[in-house]
Design brief:
The protein has a domain of 91 residues: 3-Layer(aba) Sandwich (Peroxisomal Thiolase, Chain A, domain 1), CATH 3.40.47. Helix content is 27%, strand content 10%. β1, α2 and β2 form a beta-alpha-beta unit. The radius of gyration is 15 Å and the shape is globular. The termini are far apart.
Length: 135
């Protein structure tokens, strides 16, 4: 088993939900900004080196729906050969994404993976836009 390392970490600015300065910024744009920033911090890393983008999202619906991992990869300007995945483990979604990336690297399935979390509490409130509790 190989060692996996975190070589860069970034985060987007924090806005005040639901009407702060970022309330109209889409989640894939927030994520793409972070991905570009993380890549820029690693000397010699080029987008072709990245083999996957794994992102956690607690409420993957509405503006955060579809596959945010893939959408963020494309929006960040990564080659269209870079896949993406979205993980939902509620409050630990981003941590699970990092753990999944670590496992893939440790087992030799990849060398470079971007992992983290993305969420817009302004666009998607806790419980989602159309919350319906199970009976």
């Amino acid at each position: 088993m190989r060692n996996a390392y975190i070589v860069s970490s970034v985060r987007t600015p924090v806005g005040k939900a639901p009407r702060g300065s970022l309330h109209q910024v889409r989640p894939e744009d927030l994520g793409a900004t972070a991905v570009r920033g993380a890549i820029a911090q690693v000397p010699g890393l080029v987008s072709n080196d990245i083999e996957d983008v794994i992102l956690g999202c607690a409420m993957p619906e509405a503006q955060q729906g579809f596959n945010l991992g893939r959408l963020v990869a494309l929006r960040a300007g990564l080659p269209d050969t870079v896949p993406g995945a979205t993980i939902n483990r509620l409050c630990s979604s981003g941590l699970q994404a990092i753990a999944s990336a670590t496992q893939a690297i440790a087992w030799g399935q990849a060398d470079v993976i971007v992992a983290g979390g993305v969420e817009s509490m302004s666009l998607i409130p806790m419980g989602g836009p159309l919350f319906s509790a199970p009976p």
